[in-house]
Amino acid sequence: MGLFFDHRVFTSEKNGRIVVERILNRTSIFVDGFDQSSRYITEMWKQALLRVPSDHTVKHVLILGLAGGNAVRLVHRKFKDAHVTVVEWDPVMVDLAKTLRLFSRKHMPEIVTADAVEFVQKTQQTFDLIIVDLFHGEIPEPRLASEEMISSLSHILNPDGYLLLNPFKNISLIPAFDKKFSRQDAWHYRFNALAVYRHFGQGTVGDPPPVGFDHQMQSPAYLAGGWEPDATNVESVGKSGCVGRRWHYGPFWVEAYTTDVQPEIDYTAHSRVVIWQPVTKKSRPVGWHRSWIQMNPQQHGFGDIEGKTEYWSDWTDHAKRHRKKWLKDESYEIVEVPLEEFGKAYHASGKLPSMRKDFIKLLIRRIKTHGDDVHLFVARNKQTKQIISGLAVCDLPDVSCSMHLVAFLHPKFEKTSAGVGLIDHWYKHCQTVGIRFPHFGLIWAPGDPRSWKGYSKFKRNFNLFVLKYPLPLIRFVKQKKS
Description:
Blueprint (H helix, E strand, L loop, with lengths): L4 E8 L3 E8 L2 E6 L2 E4 L1 H11 L10 E5 L5 H9 L4 E6 L2 H9 L10 E4 L2 H7 L4 E6 L2 E2 L2 E2 L6 H10 E12 L4 H6 L3 E8 L2 E7 L21 H5 L9 E6 L2 E8 L2 E7 L13 E6 L11 E2 L8 E4 L14 H12 L3 E5 L2 H10 L7 H15 L3 E8 L5 E10 L4 E9 L8 H16 L3 E6 L10 H7 L5 E4 L4 E5 L5
Parallel strand pairs: 5-6, 5-8, 6-7, 8-11, 16-17, 23-24
Antiparallel strand pairs: 1-2, 2-3, 3-4, 9-10, 11-13, 12-13, 14-15, 15-16, 17-26, 18-26, 19-24, 19-25, 20-21, 21-22, 22-23
């Protein structure tokens, strides 16, 4: 090409007329008159990639549609060690990328000349980031909105991955993707509509939980276990699918529910404040007021082992390594112990000194309510019987859930894999007794105490569905005298 300016035209059976222009050191590519590589495209993808956090682990990237290679270069700039696979159906575009030297040798992507839809449906690889940019002129790939294509994309996107979609002007693609993915954001960059997606359960308000999931607060036994068995200031209210508790402190009455089913108001009961915490429902029915603060936990996390013989298969590499290490270590064993032994080891760990008594009281209350459904697992040295770590859980068969109650790890043994070993044992226990959801409880969110953050990071190693709650709804009810 010329030194300062050049203009060339190429013909492709698949893409038609391809124009390549270079002014000084800037190359632009147009396919049937549509921009494929320019400052506009660079800025568009730069904005899109801002939606993926820089500290997010991105090792494997899939780009569907080569275009002018702008997205490839920007990905390499942001995630320097990522392996990028590009799928391009037109061999002429692939040849141009090589001829024009669009990529440096250091950041040369793996280019696969293939039909993108067929590639996605057949590949066994998984990716941390997928960029979908499939067009013929201004028309998107017709099969892109199909259920088969979107399901295939879901299967190859890693559990905590991101998907960036460029529909151009065809915003009808967005509702099709909304059915299978959680939309994190959608916006316009001049002529282009763009959207970023993740799997459901990455901590977005309104994400639907797995079919068959029942919230633990809809287990009457679990609700009852939150109070002393002989408490006289509390009573059960509601009906199946919308159970709650009503209690009072002196003359002040409170009623609370956690469910997507709207509570029925009983006007014959005491004047009170009713607090309704929806699970996913974001609308506000007439008569309810949206709280401006979150009075309940911001988010919870749980696993789902239905149909998963190898329940660890979607854990992080870190968790898989520690599981493998723990199973090979023959110096420790995991057993159940009585409360006194568990409590003594918990105190000896030195963890949460100001809260240990409260947690032990919680365990006592749960054992009184749930009996043999509370399990106190400990990891201990086979020879010395010294307990190095512990995990207390409570099975709720009525909602097929096992609740994480208390956990500890002795500081001297933090380099062991006991923490992952106990989680692995818990998952095996759930499989054995037929419980589907191992529930990890609270997951840290901005605004929560920083002390929760480290353990929440550990919990996220197990591919949790993170259920983030809308702000609660409040209603003040005045008793009607008969």
